[in-house]
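SUBJECT: A protein chain and its fold
Encoding: whole-number codes for local backbone shapes
Chain under study, with its fold:
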Amino acid sequence: MTIHTEHPFDTPDEDRDPVRRLRGRVGGTVSLWTSGQGIERAGLTVSSYLVATGDPGRVVGLLHAESDLLDRLEESGTAVVALLGARDQRLADAFAGTMPAPGGPFRLTDWEQTAWGPRATSTTSWMGVRLDPTSRHDVGWSVLVEATVEHAEVGVDDAPLVHRRGRYQRPAG
């Protein structure tokens, strides 16, 4: 048996899309977007998003065009955007669809239903947002959405979950 330092079936860097490779180097904190309620709830791990301060604050995100989350967000008009910590890596992988979650990813932790959608009780920094229905734009392989921040809570931020170049990273200092 041979132990590889890289995945043996990965496409070599020189054969990958350069824009996608550059985007991977940007990196960012990992968030979990959730919407809906009961059996009609959906979620998606998102690291391509931007929060703009102002009165009111705004959030812009790039969501997978075929995700259940995008459908639910457009139906309900609201969502929870929660920042994930290093302890939430399994949750992030399940909602990204990269790790199996028997019974669905909502079974992996406890949830509370808010006015904007379900929130994992383990998350301490989160926003309740309302979708701007005219903001949907197809951008590359994603859909850009914009929402108004109606509620924000800021909690302990001891070990944020950061994603860069296809891997989770521990931020320095």
